[in-house]
Amino acid sequence: MAVLTTVNADLQSSDEETRRRAVLDLATVSLDDARELLFVAMGDGSWRVRKEAVSLLLGMCPDKGTIEGIIGLLASVDNAGLRNSAVEVLEGLAGRAVPALLAHLKDDDRDVRKFVVDILGTIGDRSSIPALIDALDDPDPNVSAAAAENLGKIGDLRAVAPLLAALGKNDVWFSYSILGALARIGEPVPVNVLTPHASDGILKRPVIECLGAVGDAEAVPLLVEGLGDRVRAVREAAACAIIRLRGRLAGAEAARCVDDALARLAGSAVVDGLLGSLDTTDQGVRDALIRVLGYIGDARAALPLLQGCRDERLRRLCLQGLRTMGERGMEALAAAYPAADDEEKSIIIQVWGELGFTGCADLLGEAMGSARTMMRRAAAVAAGKIGLLSLMGTIAALLDDREHDVREGAINGLIRLAPAEPAGVRAIARKLADSSSTGSRHDAVRLYAALGDADRLALLMKDEDPLVRRSAVSALAEQHIPESVSNLVMALVDEDPDVRIAAASGLGEIGGAEAVEPLILSLDDEDPWVRCASLRSLGRIGGERPLDAIERLIDSADGVVMITALETLAEIEGGRAANLVKRGLESGDEEVVKVAIDLLANDGSDWVNTYRERLLSHSHWDVRISFARAMARLLGREAMPHLTAALQQEQDELVRDELQTLLGGLR
Fold first, then answer.
1. Backbone dihedral region of 527: left (phi > 0), alpha (psi from -120 to 50 degrees) or beta?
2. Which residues contact 200 (CB under 8 A, 6 or more apart)?
3. Longest alpha-carbon distance in the chain
4. What is the pLDDT of residues 5-37, one digit of tens each?
5. Residues with Cβ < 8 Å from 165, sequence gap 6 or more?
6. How far apart are CA 322 and CA 355, in angstroms?
């Protein structure tokens, strides 16, 4: 054939692009004719040419003879690119290549056997497990080690017993591979089978890693011993393993055996070694070290854990570690505080607040007078979290701070103190409420909310500033006091729409029959967002009266109000509400129709055939797509005739593409 002659010549060209295009030309001939030239291209010096050959060969669905030929390429010792291409094709063929590969596990060439084992492991077909188990006895150590490794990769439990039986039979590296495989499979094994191998310096680390994955409480002593090993890699492996084991142990009592064993290391030299490993770049190891140090509770780890708090991802772990240390850790931070820079001091203050350390009152009072914004804020918040009532006056003084963040921190602190000292916080709130500053009156709302003082919140609902009124309305609603309904009803006629929205939403939160009629009246509000808030609240309250009102609204609503009405109806149980949602399918607004389709699609398919003709021929392309998607999802293959008919009539290319995609998925 002329094509083959040309391709053969082009594959000898020095030009890479010419060779690549030659491979593409092979797509026009049969696999029988193209096979040998494809094998040549698979060994080309250019990865681009090899890639084209691999892709084309996979697309030609190689037969049994071709697969045998590809396996034969694995013996090409002088061309690594050709072997790699053969591996890629065989892995790409997956299960189709497995029978032929299994036959070559007894190949005379040990390199071929090694390739076959690795390919089978990558494919992961569980039918290859028995043959891979047999390969554990292969005379070549590289093949037997590869068999162990790939049994672990596949993860079949049938491999556990043979792997344990083979442990220690051959060289140390074979055992290394077996331990790794057992760890990957994760099936519990008797600890006493593994621990004897820890005496070998090379195997100690993999034994420890394996115990973390498959051991039980009996493994704890060896893992704790590993934390003090002179080899850093072993110490780090032990830290990771003991945390992994602790997470696997069932029950609090089992986990406590780990915690108790670690706690006994406090004050020992083991802690120094673990601290020395904190500079690791391996994030997983660092996480494990921090957890272990926290469980040990040695005060020497307080400062390193403090530094770990700078990392948001590690913050929770470090705080947990410091919490485990208790007073010793907090006192260590207090001792370090005077020499720390301002950022470190702020972190220490935050830690004290998180952990409720009461011994820092003097230092927090001093920090509230700092020139640094972050320290003043952190100290105010921490004092509130700890519950330091003696610092209430100092915190209150920060309400006049020039920095918003500090004022925010002071309010935060006072809110936390409110339950313990309501009279003091109420006096501060009263002063703020009488202030000419809008911001101060807004802060008063927050304090009265923390105090649960509905009467004062009701007064602030009459404030001259709409922001204060809105905040007071929201805060009052959050109290969930039925007696507050009348105040919220009054706010429904506020001149500011945001206040009215807050009132309508709040009435839905409190609920009750008293709220229904005022909310129905608000459905006539001039602001559409007020009407939306009223709709949602009526939906939360439920009942026939709200349904009557929503039904009347549907006849005249449009846009966002209509959409909200439909969404509200969808949340109300009962056939009447569902039937009202169907009326949205008749809207002239395509966005409303799409919402109705989506809502109805969540509740079954009984409506689909009724509206099928109308919606598949709807004037708006987006509605046609939305309905076609819903019908395909709800009816499955039953939708195919209707989608096919719609495709034959459809003129819009976007809709045609979507219909073809849906039909393809259903086939």
1. beta
2. 172, 175
3. 100
4. 998 998 999 999 999 999 988 888 899 999 999
5. none
6. 8
Helices 590-601/559-570 angle, 10° precision: 10
For 613, the enclosing helix (H) or strand (E) is: helix 608-616
Nearest-angstrom CA–CA distance, 425 and 86: 77
Comparing CA positions, the residue from 19, 14, 26 lying closest to residue 49 is 19
φ, ψ of residue 380 to 5 degrees: the values are -65, -45
Tokens 């003082």 belong to which residue? 453
Residues 6+ apart with CB under 8 A from 569: 539, 547, 550, 577, 578, 580, 581, 599
Q: Is 509 exposed, middle or buried (0-12, 13-18, 19+ CB in 10 A)?
A: middle
The answer to whether the beta carbons of residues 10 and 22 sit under 8 Å apart is: yes
Nearest to 465 by CA among 431, 489, 498: 498
CA distance 552 to 279: 69
Q: How far apart are CA 633 and CA 287, in angstroms?
A: 44
- The four Cα atoms 212, 217, 219, 221 give a dihedral, to 10 degrees, of 120
Q: Within 13 Å and on the Cβ side, how many CA atoms surround 192?
A: 0
The answer to whether residues 458 and 484 touch, using CB atoms and an 8 Å cutoff, is yes
Token pair 């009124």 in the structure block, residue: 469
DSSP labels, 481-550: -GGGHHHHHHHTT-SSHHHHHHHHHHHHHH--GGGHHHHHHHTT-SSHHHHHHHHHHHHHH-SHHHHHHH
Pairwise CA distance, residues 541 & 321, whole Å: 47
Structure tokens at 42: 């698979």
The answer to whether the beta carbons of residues 81 and 51 sit under 8 Å apart is no
Q: Can you give the C-alpha Rg of the chain in angstroms? A: 36
> Contact 206/191 with Cβ under 8 angstroms?
no
How many other C-beta atoms can be found within 10 angstroms of the C-beta atom of residue 607?
20
Reported as a single tens digit per residue, the pLDDT across 124-146 is 999 999 999 999 999 999 999 99
Alpha-carbon distance of 565 to 227, in angstroms, equals 63
CB 175 within 8 A of CB 197: yes
Classify 463 as helix, strand or coil. coil
Sign of the dihedral defined by the CA atoms of residues 532, 536, 542, 547, in that order: positive
Could you tell me the pTM of the whole model? 0.66
The Cα 156–Cα 94 span in angstroms is 18
Report d(CA 148, CA 141) in Å as an integer: 11
**Segment holding 381, helix H or strand E:** helix 373-386
Nearest Cα neighbor of 293 from 316, 274, 267 is 274
CB 523 within 8 A of CB 531: yes
Q: How far apart are CA 601 and CA 405, in angstroms?
A: 47
Question: CA–CA separation, 594 vs 622, rounded Å?
Answer: 8
Please give the Cα distance from 467 to 575 (Å, whole number). Answer: 41
Q: Per residue in 256-309, pLDDT tens?
A: 899 899 989 989 999 999 999 998 999 899 889 988 998 888 888 988 888 888
38, HSE (Cβ side, Cα atoms, 13 Å): 30
Mean pLDDT of 425-452: 96
In sequence order, the 6+-apart residues with CB closer than 8 A to the CB of 310 are: 347
Distance of alpha carbon 612 from alpha carbon 95, whole angstroms: 43
CB of 228 within 8 A of CB of 269? Answer: yes
